[in-house]
Amino acid sequence: MVLIEYSELEMLISRIREISGFDFSGYARPSLLRRASRYLTRHDMNVEELMQHIEPGGGIVYDLIQEMTVNYSEMFRDPEFFIKVKSEVFSYLESYPTLRFWVAGCASGEEAFSLAILLKEAGFLERSLIYATDLNNRVLNAAREGVFTLSSTRTFSENYLLASGKGSLSDYYHVAYSKAVISPELRKNIVFSLHDLTGDGVFNEFQFISCRNVMIYFTLELRQKVFKLLYDSLSMLGFLCLGKRETLRYSGIENNFKVIDSTLNIYQKIQ
């Protein structure tokens, strides 16, 4: 593994910002160090060599950005979260004639597909639209295809059953060429789109926003900026969902929300 110094990382962050406009300065440094080191190791180069190859209009800087952004998820990750959403959130949203959901930092689409299944089983999917966004175009392309390995579906299926799914996860995909392909019926209600939480603005108003396991990679200052964006994107009495290790504390907007579940970090906007 090629190891880099913090000073070298800062130079790299500055160079990426200069070339692409993408700003990693608000990201937690340990995570960036690991990912930058992994990129250098894979391409058998050091920081100095990488800096020489980063140039305007070149593909390397965008390849590096893709590598340094986080893109891991599972379908029905944290099954108890989905149980709580069904029991505490859907009972409130069932009266809405139309519903808009936002999965921010959607990676390869696992949470968006999980939410679509949840909505399908609750009878809400036909009047719902799910916006699933990420800043990593590579994983967004994978999400649009909705194709997963059969080995990953074993974990997904276990999670689905633990989340009190009504049937079998296999009801929502078919097998083709030893891959699992998500049903078109689920995919037609999902819009996958490029969006940078740290730099882009409000693009719609939502009754439900899931931004789970994203904030842990940001500094406090950047978290506060992103929380403001999420707040402005949420309709009154809408729901905001964070990851288990995340919290609204020190967000600057905590007093505008009612806590629905303090362990699973589900909140409702009340002002």
Automatic annotation (TrEMBL):
Signal sequence interval, chain numbering: none
Domain CheR-type methyltransferase, residue spans: 1-270
InterPro entries named in the record: Bact_Chemotaxis_MeTrfase, CheR_C, CheR_MeTrfase, SAM-dependent_MTases_sf
Domain of life: Bacteria
PROSITE patterns for this protein: CHER (PS50123)
SMART domains for this protein: MeTrc
GO molecular function: S-adenosylmethionine-dependent methyltransferase activity
PANTHER family listed in its UniProt record: CHEMOTAXIS PROTEIN, CHEMOTAXIS PROTEIN METHYLTRANSFERASE
Protein name from the UniProt record: Chemotaxis protein CheR
